Amino acid sequence: MDRNASAPPMSANGRRGLFRDIEPFSFGWLSTDGPHELYYEECGAPRGKPAVILHGGPGGAVNPTMRRFFDPSKWRMTLFDQRGCGRSRPNASLENNTTWSLIADIERLRVHLGIEKWTVFGGSWGSTLALAYAITHPERVEGLVLRGIFLLTQKELQWFYQGGAAMLFPDAWERFLAPIPVEERGDLMSAYYKRLTHPDRRIQAEAANAWSQWEGDTISLRGPEARPPKFNEEDFAIAFARIECHFFTHGGFFEEDGWILKNINKIRHIPAWVVQGRFDVVTPLDSAWALQKAWPESRLEIVWDAGHASTEPGVIDGLVRATNAALTA
């Protein structure tokens, strides 16, 4: 048998690509303490090293590419759609949907699958949730592999939703402003939240499309990223925008601004790898830099030719090397 059969391809400049495409070996829906049922799937090696993969947003969903950052012959990967997202039910629900309920869901899923400890992988909002979960349950985390660090601070939210990033993308920003009357533009998250929670689905959809498009326009150096095609476009946009705006309007449900960095000492003993695009506009390098300063034991790799997207070549290379390193951590 070819010992390198599971290795990802290498590009001409020596960068690693994604591992081969795989299908889940099990999947199901997990009941919670409320109306939510969570879709989850397991991929890779049933007896491999456990990892849980957290999608972004909040409001995003798992997709097949997320399975491909790990060697499928060595990792037991668990992915799940967070409350209101993807194939979890009910779709786009904001009821009992907070950072703390999601952390409880991760623990519920770990216990359900009979896993003692696992490596936690997440990018963007997935990095926020991964860090918050690790701080809350450090005894259950064997390692962290993170991308596009987002600490969910007011500074970051103001940058992206109140005009900072607009200086780089004035054309896209104009489209983002379009659904909001001039008199409401002093607090765009609140203006969007009012529309995304409106009982009229047409009003929700208009706001959701503009909200989602703004992130899509700014996410990658290679141009706007397509949304996962397996979900109905309008359903996906509404779930994504409603849940994301819900979390952001409430400051991530943290008890104070900057909660993650203020509690980082609780997890400094855990091995961690961070991959960050130099030209990330959605979650700028400043946050990853602040995290590394507070957590000097973590390994920060800055990818010079990448933005925010996980599928940019340099980010893929960094994440694949990180998951390989985490195998022996």
Question: Concise description?
Answer:
This protein is 35% helix and 15% strand. It is an alpha/beta fold and 329 residues long. The longest helix has 18 residues.
Name the shape in a single word. globular
Mean pLDDT: 94
**What's the β-strand tally?**
8
Helix content: 25-40%
Please name the fourth-level CATH homologous superfamily of the largest domain. Answer: Alpha/Beta hydrolase fold, catalytic domain
The radius of gyration computed from the alpha-carbon positions, rounded to a whole number of angstroms, is 19 Å
Largest sheet: 8 strands, mixed
Percent strand equals 15-25%
Please state the structural category. Answer: alpha/beta
Regarding quaternary structure, what we see is single chain
Q: Uncertain runs with pLDDT below 50, 5 residues or more?
A: 1-5, 226-231
| CATH uppermost class of the largest domain | Alpha Beta
N-to-C SSE string, H for helix and E for strand: EEEEHEHEHHHHHHEHEH
How far apart lie the N and C ends? 27 Å
**What is the CATH topology assignment of the largest domain?**
Rossmann fold
